[in-house]
């Protein structure tokens, strides 16, 4: 039976290691050094042999009028079908391509060579960035599309989620942005809060550029303009933010629906009656006027409404629809109060000064674990009519109620101290939570959603004004025509 040849020339005969501990240690060190010298000599011989082979190949290429570049083109150009050679001899060794690219831009190479490689790398990365932008746009992840801006749309905005999405789908671009925002000092001394802030800045820059790549990628811009408007930013501020690509324009925010289907002299209003005659006599060269049919325009107008409405009007309409849905159940409560707002002019000139607006606003919310039977107005009137006259005993608190009120007031004061007293009082938070007063009338822990209604130009400080506010609330919610209204 034939065996495979040994990888070495045979056994290496050495003297045994004997003596005391110190002598054995010295002998082991000497043998290790001897073995190392033999290995280095072998490697040097092997390296010399490889260099000789490579020099021979280069010399043979030169003798035949070829260059090393011709050999590279032959191996790496797909048209020569050298895929097996490329994989086995080059790409299979992970990191070899990276090392060679690093050598090409090393300072030892000429400036011309470095410039060419750097220019190619920049163009390649630019192509990757454009491809990533096209993929993000095709995915419609940052687009509103034909949908409307509603509560779910706004609640879905999350910078960490957008950052994770961009890290996955635009990895190279985000790597470049992160390098622009990170210095060597940042790597040494970065705190977790600073890392999160830098991620937010990088994500904001990427979203602004993607919004410029395609104006359909307007998710972040629409959310930012809503935030600016809600925070009281003036029109000029929003315009500047829009020019910087951070937010949507003020016009797109407040755009009202306009219909592009024209009559001869004015735009179509869907509530206009069909005229029996044209608004003017057409000329001989004009087309015969045909009045539009509102029934046929209904579908078109509804489609145009979602597209032409500004962001603010879309959100307002969606929230009003949600409030009407809550009111349709009949299990809701409402509150209202007056509002006073001052709109200041940046530059006061004739006809453009500060103005104060007064009105009334209202909010509704769903009732917790209520039923329609408990909402009976007849039962309320009957109980009110059968109630005994009010006495002083009905107002004064009992002894247990006074004790509970005292505990609640003490706990409220302690909570204010812990919440706003700084770090030294923070350590009492657990004890404060344990001392929270409880009562049998406590309802289950839950979050009450609030649904604001539009503001009205009604003075609610009078009896007539209060009645008008109630009528306005009912009209806005559309509850008068429901089955449970009576």
Summary of the model, kept short:
This protein has 486 residues and is mainly α.
In DSSP terms (H or I, runs of 4 or more residues), the helix count works out at 20
Biggest sheet: strands, sense, closure? 3 strands, antiparallel
Q: In which range does the helix fraction lie? A: 55-70%
Q: Strand order, biggest sheet?
A: 1-2-3
How many E-type strands? 3
User: What gross morphology would you assign?
Assistant: elongated
Strand content: 5-15%
Spans of at least 5 consecutive residues whose pLDDT stays below 50 are 260-292
Distance between the amino and carboxyl termini: 106 Å
The helix-and-strand class reads mainly alpha
Order of helices and strands: HHHHHHHHHHHHHHHEEHHHHEH
Average pLDDT value?
81
What is the CA-based Rg, rounded? 40 Å
Protein name: DUF6589 domain-containing protein
Region (Disordered): 265-286
Organism: Mycena albidolilacea
Domain DUF6589: 386-480
């Amino acid at each position: 039976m034939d065996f495979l040849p040994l990888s070495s020339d045979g056994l290496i005969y050495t003297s045994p290691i004997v003596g005391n501990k110190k002598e054995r240690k010295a002998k082991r060190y000497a043998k290790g050094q001897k073995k190392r010298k033999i290995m280095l000599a072998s490697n040097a011989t092997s390296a010399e042999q490889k260099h000789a082979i490579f020099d021979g190949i280069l010399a043979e290429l030169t003798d035949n009028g070829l260059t090393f570049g011709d050999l590279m083109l032959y191996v790496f150009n797909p048209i020569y079908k050298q895929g097996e050679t490329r994989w086995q001899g080059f790409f299979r060794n992970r990191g070899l391509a990276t090392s060679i690219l690093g050598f090409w831009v090393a300072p030892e190479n000429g400036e011309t060579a470095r410039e060419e490689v750097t220019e190619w790398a920049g163009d390649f990365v630019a192509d990757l960035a454009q491809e990533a932008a096209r993929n993000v746009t095709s995915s419609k992840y940052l687009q509103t599309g034909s949908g409307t801006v509603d509560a779910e749309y706004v609640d879905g905005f999350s910078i960490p989620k957008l950052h994770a999405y961009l890290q996955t789908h635009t990895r190279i671009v985000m790597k470049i942005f992160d390098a622009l925002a990170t210095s060597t000092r940042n790597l040494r001394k970065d705190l977790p809060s600073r890392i999160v802030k830098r991620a937010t800045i990088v994500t904001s820059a990427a979203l602004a550029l993607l919004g410029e790549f395609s104006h359909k990628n307007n998710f972040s811009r629409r959310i930012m303009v809503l935030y600016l408007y809600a925070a009281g930013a003036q029109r000029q501020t929003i315009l500047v933010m829009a020019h910087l690509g951070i937010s949507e324009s003020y016009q797109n925010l407040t755009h009202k629906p306009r219909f592009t289907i024209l009559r001869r002299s004015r735009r179509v209003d869907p509530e206009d009656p069909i005229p029996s005659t044209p608004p003017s006599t057409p000329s001989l060269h004009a087309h015969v006027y045909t009045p539009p049919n509102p029934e046929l325009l209904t579908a078109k107008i509804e489609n145009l409404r979602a597209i032409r409405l500004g962001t603010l009007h879309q959100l307002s309409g969606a929230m009003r629809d949600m409030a009407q849905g809550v009111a349709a159940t009949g299990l809701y409560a409402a509150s209202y109060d007056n509002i006073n707002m001052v709109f200041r002019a940046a530059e006061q000139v004739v006809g453009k000064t500060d103005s104060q607006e007064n009105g009334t606003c209202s909010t509704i919310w769903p009732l917790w674990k209520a039923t329609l039977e408990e909402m009976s107005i007849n039962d309320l009137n009957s109980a009110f009519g059968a109630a005994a006259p009010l006495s002083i005993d009905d107002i004064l608190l009992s002894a247990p109620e006074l004790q509970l009120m005292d505990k609640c007031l003490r706990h409220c004061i302690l909570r204010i101290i812990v919440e706003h007293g700084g770090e030294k009082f923070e350590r009492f938070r657990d004890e404060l939570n344990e001392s929270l007063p409880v009562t049998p009338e406590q309802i289950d822990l839950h979050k009450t959603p609030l649904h604001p209604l539009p503001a009205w130009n009604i003075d609610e400080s009078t009896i007539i004004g209060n009645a008008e506010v109630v009528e306005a609330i009912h009209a806005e919610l559309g509850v008068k025509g429901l089955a449970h209204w009576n």
